[in-house]
Predict the structure.
Amino acid sequence: GRPVGNRLWTRNLRTAQVKEILNFIDGDYVIGSAWFDKRAPYNGQVIARVAEADKALVDTAVQAARNALHGPWGKLPLADRVDLLYAVANEIDRRFEDFVEAEMTDIGQPAHFIRHVDVPRGAANFKIFADVIKNVPNEFFEMTTPDGLGALNYALRRPVGVVAVICPWNLPFLLMTWKLGPAMACGNTVVVKPSEETPQAAALLGEVMNRVGVPKGVFNVVHGFGPQATGEFLTTHPDISAITFTGETRTGAAIMQAAAVGARPVSLEMGGKNAAIVFADCDLDAAIEGTLRSAFANCGQVCLGTERVYVERPIFDEFVSRLKRGAEAKKPGLPDDPESGMGPLISQEHRNKVLSYYKKAVEEGATVVTGGGIPEMPDALKGGSWVQPTIWTGLPDSATVMREEIFGPCCHISPFDSEEEVIRRANDNPYGLSSAIWTTNLQRAHRVSGAIEAGIVWVNSWFLRDLRTPFGGAKQSGIGREGGVHSLEFYTELKNVCIKL
Ligand code: NAD
């Protein structure tokens, strides 16, 4: 790759012309061996050409990251590292609108969602892990010995090394910084592979790092695809010390195999088929509002989203009709349209997948309560990957549509009659990421939360996140937990020092 200067994440940022999104390696923006197109999800037009990193460029990035470990970054006192992470957060805030634009054009979701969920979490992710690393105590054990003099044990935390960060497209900036914050706080260096669908925010973050003085090579970005391409070149690179991944379960399994060579640790945040359980004693307004968000926010492309809703029989009909009304009120539109209630799916390819499930649901005997197809859009937006919010009833738990993650704006609602029954049915799935329980009965809330097989349970809420808490999936939804001190388990190597007195 040829360096092209260090303040050029894109050309023509504020014009309608096609941008160029570059790799960011060792503090410089570099082109690659090829280019690929990024299309806007709302109209299908090419908005950027992205510089693809080949094997040689991935190697350059990994070597830059490895050198940085032993350079100024590795020698930086903790307090200075913490200050730098705060500076990154502040610079993200200063460039807030640039990140909003990058995310808006990459994922096409309504501006208010990007402004309130996705981009603010970028800055928060750097601050929280700066605070964690500053405040976490070291483990210490005093022991007795037969000679009566004893020994002292203490555990030191050291960076793991060069961390490969493999990101999905659904909440690109939020999910990428969720890994970068702790990785950098713990003193590691990183090579990030953003999704090929959402390259912009990662590239822009390079400018932030340079501006606040993060040493060259600490943060690197390589663009490209997954299998037999940039992603795989990175995860199979022998100088990568650990791999953190968010994405589909199938991809996670491939990454785990790559990590097996050299026995590298992995942290995997993967798919879900999350259940909401709505008891008749719930606050129905809150349950409707929460379920509308959990099924349709980000056009249903949230790993924590609800695709299976179980509603206690006495309120089933009312719940279905109110959720239907809410879904039908979500008007699709452009991100900067204040009336827009929902953006498009990420790509035509993903829409084909979602529509295949819409078809399958009908074949499997579902009643389509609302949606099920493509909405009527104005001519200028017809090339976008729009899809209708969709609700089904009438399927058995064994239906494909009830078992596989669809990752679209859709859910199935089933009635249930007892707590025991609904726990069994909610758990009868290979995934175990999250669950939302709606009830005003305190004992039941605790009982059901305890029995649900998932990494995260919300009671009377959804997507309410305290970044200090453990986050991750049970069963096929993930391996490991990140968040607060839990992230330290993955991003540091603990070393016990035993001193005989
Ligand atoms: P994906 O698995 O298709 O891709 C994720 C990333 O992996 C991309 O950058 C891709 O290029 C890369 N990749 C693909 N194959 C690879 C390979 N063989 N080697 C190395 N890298 C490879 O996922 P996606 O479609 O981008 O994202 C949607 C999925 O992510 C959904 O399943 C969703 O549930 C999941 N997700 C999970 C969480 C969580 O926290 N558990 C959060 C968000 C999304």
Summary: Residues 44 and 91 are 31 Å apart (CA to CA). The pocket of nicotinamide-adenine-dinucleotide is lined by residues 166-170, 175, 193, 195-196, 225-227, 231-232, 235, 246-248, 251, 254-255, 269-272, 303, 405, 407, 433, 473, 477-478 (CB under 6 Å).
